Amino acid sequence: MFKKKKSESWLRDNVEAVATAVALAMLIRLFAVEAFVIPTGSMAPTLRGEHISLTCPNCGTEVAIAFRGGFEKAYLFETISPHSKKDVTVVVYGSDLSFNEQEVVCPDSGKSWYVRVSREKLGKATYARRYNAICPVCNWRFKADVVPSDVCGGDKIFVNKLPFLLREPQRWEVIVFKCPQETTKNYIKRLIGLGGETVQIKGGEIYIDGKMARKPRWARRAVATLVYSSELKEKFKERSVWQIKHGAWRFEEDGFSVQAGSEPNVVEYGGDITARVPYNEPDSDSGQPVSDVTLEFRVKANVDGSVEKNYVLALLGDGTNEAVLYLATGRGRSLLRFNCDVVAESEFGLSGGGFHSVEFSKVDNRVEVYVDGKMLFAYEYETETTGRNATIRIGAQGVNVFFKDVRIWRDIYYYARMGGYGDESEPERVPLDSYFVLGDNSENSNDSRVWGSVPSANLMGKAFLVFWPPKRVHFVK
Rounded to an integer, what distance in angstroms lies between the CA atom of residue 458 and that of residue 446? Predict the structure, then answer.
């Protein structure tokens, strides 16, 4: 009798524990946190739907592209690549291969050539698809064969439901909501306009009540796209992306340097910066020019005592407006010039001997300078840009300087209409208790430009963490 009661008590305790855990999980899901799978690429590259992940064979950059289905019957084939001079396994397509010459792709370089294929030498049968792509960072054109196992599911994220129970959503946050047209579907977009505001898209920028909406630093960094990095080592360098304007510059594997005299020694970035999104069209090299950019670098400077003016220089221009940064080395005054006028200055000077990190941005009609993580200058202007081609220069005067870890980021470009069309939209007033939302993939996002604003009652929560796949784990901003 005692053993029976003890067994019943153990069973009851465990059932109660399981029931409590299930109830707690349901409450957490209902009121606090819920998992969500990104269904489409409307928020790419910030968040990805079902996609294929390519690797640039030149610099190793990951190139994520939307997967839209479709594989062909194919075979593996062993041969020697004329590009890498190595034995490689390539993919050949088709069912009748007895007398065909087939174009195949070198997996080491991404370049193709033709081989004569005989059925007797064919390897394992498979299904594959060939993609043409252009690396968004080094601009290497390459081809890649992918198989069904290369398809990656959409990012899995956690949605935090608590913040908006305690406060109102803020502009630029990524929110999850029920689609106004079909409330059984959950959508995820970036919040742009609040209830009662008038939203307009003009020249790739967001205007709220007639004034440009300037992104705070965290949002500027969240939507930025990397277009150049000196940290990536290119296997095949067809040309130098930096053009010497003045001085005897030395380009090395880990950076570039110059011994600058009394005249400014300058190099200029020679790449095109456009709003193209490889996720949509991986082989397209066209896109709307973008001049809102952020330049980052690390610099070490040693002063030449024989020269009076000692500066590390950086310039960001857009065809109309030009911001020039003069960072003094040792004792001196650092300056920020805008269209030839000094708009900010400081007693700050770079110390010699070690590296300093610099972040210099000209985005949303606002210039910001951070040195070693601390803001040095900030300047806002209202002049509209008539030209959009970005000009980026770095250099030095009266100082021996070494630049490394140079990166260039472009700002997001918002189109007036879905599909990458339109430079200017009509002003649209957001109803009270509603939100105007846009996808980060402005060219290919079904959002408020199509179906209007989102009622506050449809709001579910704030996206805050990508938890799967492991290599994509990060907080959503």
Answer: 17
